[in-house]
Write a structure and sequence with these properties.
The complex is a heterodimer of chains A (368) and B (563).
Chain A lengths: L3 E10 L2 E11 L4 E5 L6 H9 L6 E6 L2 E2 L10 E4 L11 H11 L4 H14 L15 H13 L5 E5 L7 H18 L2 E6 L2 H7 L2 E6 L2 E6 L1 H6 L4 H6 L4 E9 L7 E6 L2 E6 L6 E7 L4 E4 L8 E10 L4 E6 L5 E6 L13 E6 L5 E4 L5 E4 L4
Helix pairs in contact in A: 2-3, 2-4, 3-4
Chain B lengths: L12 H7 L4 H27 L11 H8 L1 H34 L5 H12 L5 H10 L4 H8 L10 H26 L2 H9 L4 H30 L2 H6 L6 H10 L6 H28 L17 H29 L1 E4 L2 E6 L2 H9 L1 H31 L3 H10 L7 H12 E2 L2 E2 L4 H26 L2 H9 L4 H29 L3 H6 L7 H10 L3 H25 L3 H4 L1
Antiparallel strand pairs in B: 1-2, 3-4
Helix pairs in contact in B: 2-16, 2-17, 2-18, 3-4, 4-8, 4-10, 5-8, 5-14, 6-14, 8-10, 9-10, 10-13, 12-13, 13-18, 14-24, 15-24, 16-19, 16-21, 19-21, 20-21, 21-24, 23-24
The complex binds adenosine-5'-triphosphate and magnesium ion.
Chain lengths: 368, 563
């Protein structure tokens, strides 16, 4: 019953579609993340699921039940808010017990369940404290305990970690993921932090301006971004324009690519001719002092940043554009210096190629 | 799963309405509308129509024509404007310097001074006027004392007396508003001006005063409106000098040839001018509103002992003068007497007499006020919630309408309620219900204001968390938001409460023998020269006010007195 289905759901604010024709489903027990830039409609979508907003079009299903008109308090959800939303007038224990009391549970049962939940978030020693001047991390863990103790059919979290410091964020996200797996609660998680999304999710939905751009596993999203927006938003991509024409000698799916003065062949997903855009990840380029093959491109080092495990170079190409390249030098290897001239070997078969608008994938490695 | 074609374009208003979920708050909105329509809009409309009714029941413009033709009527309007304007100017002259000194220098006994100022604002009705008669009337203590020194001074009677009493009772509005503004002003602006070589005085004139102007004018508006609507003071001190509220009251209740239609006309005219004044203040302020971030709030200047004593004495002069009436009343209430005549020495005679003669009035005041304040607090919090958390076109309308009684003089509100409810479908005149309605309608704005202010500071997600945990909206309100609001609501509720127990002008129009309250009893005692009993009753009100303020202060830290 804990799957969630969206059937062409649209939510308006005035004339604007804050959520535009959302049409997908979330599996039972899944950790599903909504990811996108600020103002793209993540919160709106989440609040529509919670029932704080009413979708004007389409239907939302919990299992096979339409819940469009079910008020929030009857949806059996747990929610964790960005600013914790702890009840300031209640003790830690009473905060966590709040939802159980609403369910008219017996005293004994409440006691055991609350303590169990507090132990899960490692807060049982603070049960009688008033939460108002506890740390952000502690408050967020109370909020988490309060949401899971009722064993909700659906756990909703809106940027729950964004007010915490970086270290704590990493620990908390691991804890949340662990708990979610243990309890097998279907979870919808909102964040604008892609690293967080990639680290914890079963699947990610990338949103832009109310429209879902792609829904896929973290790996798929990173390796095969469906369009230029996703490629740009997830990780770093260098967008390089080239052109593509039909290969007269070969099957209809082969294309001849012109890119930065080199010519190569790729086997396309579909026939295409005209301008194309490549999304090239920084790690999909090899650097060397000498030309390694006949399709290397010459460039000049603009800047060098040493990042410990890798080195990030900004390299100026002959056409004046700048490319971000990551290199993983071995122990003995020298770093390239600024203004040094070098050669780039772009591993084109690993990249993704879009049509000129960046909306459609023409080529990517592996299966379609 | 069916894929449904997407209708193009945003949904219409009707579609949206159909999608709205009906919950507790829809129900509250509905109830508030019923209440407003019945007790604010309907009386107002009745009043308006009544002002066009001729003697034989037909339509006429004669009342309005009479107003402009007959000097007796329109002179009252001019009189009202004159005393209110002069009182406002005088109040500004007293209140502003007082506020400046009290916020910027570390004078002594600040808390006591504030309490005195607030008490004089919240004094029972026309106690000021009545005490000044005792002190400076033709046979007043002070008048006699000065006469014995061989100096002739004019008595307190007449328009100048009204102006002085108004100013002394209402300058606390200026004091409170300006203190607030001076505390949050961004001092770096003043420092910038100082660094540019401005002298202290010019700095005050070119930077500080313009910055506090919007707040000052809001305070001035309060003084003007209070003076414009006041009934008791001109009644006692006027001696034939008529202002509009008196005229309306007289037309309404006069035994010989009262004219309710003319009373309505005068009421409509009063509302009209109050509204104009209100909107012109808003208009001026909207063009001069400087939003201040209050980056650095001013420090309180430490003073050397001598200047400190001097300034302390200086601020205590107006504060003491304005509290003098209540002290006079308190002393008078303990004077020994036989019948209405005072003897030497002190006794509890006056108190014994009131508990014997008018216990009902005391009981009435407290029972009506307690009932009213309970309604006001609950309704005020619910309405505030609608205004802040359920913002939409319907609730925006509520915001406008509940504030209407704010600009209606009490006399006018009373007259409008009588005109609306002295005939079927609903007859309420002569009952205590109509008094409670009048109190609630007239005093609830204070509670709503403070409630909306706290709600704006409360985090909305707390109640959403509660709803998401399975607690329905109404229960959520009482378990979370309502409870968290309570301390902040109190600062306004205390004002509603104090002004309700002291309410005179609307009660005077609406009461009926058995429903007399303390304030109307004071009024009749003073008019029948029973000064001792009047003073004892007034002292009871003063004491209640003082105790309420102190309790509020205790409960909510310093907020209770900040109003
Ligand atoms: N209550 C509202 N009324 C009108 N417009 C709104 C409302 N809430 C959000 N919007 C608009 O809807 C769009 C989506 O907002 P939403 O809060 O869902 O974004 P978000 O993805 O959560 O952003 P963020 O990462 O900043 O939280 C924005 O353009 C926003 O301005
Ligand atoms: Mg958001």
């Amino acid at each position: 019953m804990s799957s969630v289905v969206f059937n062409h759901v649209t939510k308006y604010f005035g004339e604007n579609k804050a959520v535009n024709d959302a049409h997908f489903s979330i599996e039972e027990g899944e950790f599903f993340t909504l990811l996108g830039p600020s103002g793209c409609g993540k919160t709106t979508l989440l609040r529509t699921i919670a029932g704080f907003y009413r979708n004007e079009e389409g239907d939302i299903y919990f299992g096979d039940r339409v819940i469009n008109d079910v008020p929030t308090h009857e949806r059996n959800i747990g929610m964790v808010f960005q600013n914790y939303a702890i009840f300031p007038h209640l003790s830690v224990f009473d905060n966590v017990a709040y939802g159980l009391r609403a369910r008219k549970m017996g005293k004994k049962e409440i006691e055991t369940k609350v303590m169990e939940a507090l132990e899960m978030v490692e807060l049982s020693h603070l049960r009688d404290r008033i939460p108002s001047n506890m740390s952000g991390g502690q408050q967020q863990r109370i909020a988490l305990a309060r949401a899971i103790v009722i064993r909700p059919a659906l756990l909703l979290m809106d940027e729950p970690l964004s007010n915490l410091d970086a270290k704590l964020r990493v620990k908390m996200r691991t804890d949340i993921r662990q708990l979610q797996k243990e309890l097998n609660i279907t979870t919808i998680y909102v964040t604008h932090d892609q690293e967080e999304a990639l680290a914890v999710s079963d699947r990610i939905a990338v949103l832009n301006e109310g429209v879902i751009q792609q829904i896929a596993t973290p790996q798929q999203i990173y390796q095969y971004p469906h369009n230029r927006f996703v490629a740009n938003f997830i990780g770093t991509s260098n967008f390089v324009e080239g052109s593509c024409e039909k290969d007269p000698d070969s099957s209809e799916h082969a294309g001849i690519i012109q890119l930065l003065g080199t010519t190569r062949k790729l086997s396309l997903h579909k026939p295409y001719e005209g301008k194309v855009v490549f999304a090239i990840r920084p790690e999909q380029v090899h650097l060397s002092g000498e030309p390694a093959s006949n399709h290397t491109v010459q460039g000049t080092v603009k800047s060098v940043s040493f990042l410990g495990d890798k080195v990030s170079y900004l390299i100026t190409l002959p056409d004046g554009s700048v490319m971000d390249v990551h290199d993983y030098p071995g122990k003995s290897q020298h770093l390239f210096r600024e203004k040094q001239s070098l050669f780039l070997d772009i591993q084109l078969e690993r990249t993704v190629m879009y049509d000129s608008t960046g909306q459609e994938v023409i080529y990517h490695a592996g299966e379609a | 799963m069916l894929a449904r074609p997407n209708p193009a374009g945003a949904p219409t208003v009707k579609q949206r309405l159909l999608l709205t979920r009906w919950d507790f708050w829809t129900f509250v909105t509905f109830c508030v509308y019923i209440f407003m329509l019945a007790f604010i809009v309907y009386p107002l409309v009745s009043l308006f129509f009544n002002s066009f009714v001729s003697k034989d029941g037909g339509f006429t413009l004669q009342n309005y024509l009479n107003f402009f033709k007959v000097k007796y009527y329109h002179q009252a309007l001019l009189n009202s404007f004159l005393v209110s304007s002069l009182a406002t100017v005088l109040a500004i002259l007293i209140g502003t310097p007082l506020a400046y000194i009290a916020t910027r220098y570390d004078i002594k006994f600040k808390g006591l001074m504030r309490l005195m100022v607030i008490m004089s604002l919240l004094s029972p009705p026309f106690i000021g006027a009545y005490s000044w008669i005792l002190l400076m009337g033709n046979n007043g203590f002070i008048t006699k004392f000065i006469r014995e020194l061989g100096i002739q001074i004019p008595s307190i009677y007449g328009w100048h007396g009204i102006v002085i009493v108004f100013a002394l009772q209402f300058y606390p509005h200026i004091f409170l508003y300006v203190s607030g503004a001076l505390k949050t002003i961004d001092t770096s602006l003043e420092e910038a001006s100082e660094s540019l070589g401005m002298t202290a005085w010019r700095r005050l004139r070119t930077v500080t005063l313009p910055l506090i102007f919007p707040t000052l004018s809001a305070g001035a508006l309060m003084v003007f409106m209070a003076s414009f609507a006041d009934f008791g003071t001109p009644m006692l001190l006027g001696q034939g000098y008529k202002v509009l509220p008196i005229l309306a009251y007289e037309q309404f209740v006069s035994e010989m040839g009262g004219n309710p239609a003319m009373a309505s006309t005068l009421s409509v005219i009063m509302i009209f001018f109050s509204t104009i004044i209100l909107f012109s203040q808003r208009y001026f302020v909207s063009r001069k509103n400087y939003s201040m971030t209050g980056m650095r709030t001013p420090v309180v200047k430490k003073l050397k002992p001598m200047p400190k004593v001097l300034l302390t004495v200086l601020v205590f002069i107006p504060a003491s003068i304005s509290i003098l009436p209540q002290l006079t009343v308190l002393v008078t209430s303990f004077l020994a007497k036989s019948g209405p005549v005072f003897h030497r020495g002190f006794s509890l005679d006056s108190y014994k007499e009131i508990f014997f003669r008018v216990p009902k009035a005391i009981l009435n005041t407290y029972s009506y006020s307690v009932l009213s304040i309970i309604i006001m607090v609950i309704a005020g919090m619910l309405i505030a919630y609608l205004l802040v958390r359920r913002k939409n076109k319907l609730t925006a309308f509520i915001d406008g309408i509940v504030m209407i009684p704010y600009i209606m003089p009490g006399t006018v509100l009373g007259i409008s309620l009588i005109i609306a409810f002295n005939k079927p479908p609903i007859v309420l005149t002569g009952t205590w219900v109509i008094l409670v309605i009048a109190y609630v309608v007239r005093k609830i704005p204070y509670t709503i204001r403070s409630s909306t202010a706290v709600l704006h500071q409360l985090d909305r997600s707390v109640e959403e968390a509660s709803v998401s945990l399975g607690v329905p909206p109404m229960k959520t309100f009482f378990k979370t938001t309502g409870r968290l609001m309570a301390p902040g609501v109190m600062s306004g509720a205390i004002l509603s409460w104090i002004t309700t127990i002291n309410e005179l002008s609307s009660t005077l129009v609406l009461y009926y023998g058995a429903t007399a309250t303390i304030s109307v009893t004071i009024y009749s005692e003073v008019f029948t020269s029973n000064y001792g009993t009047g003073a004892a009753l007034a002292s009871i009100l003063t004491l209640t006010t003082l105790v309420s303020l102190l309790i509020a202060n205790k409960l909510s830290g310093s907020r209770g007195l900040s109003l």
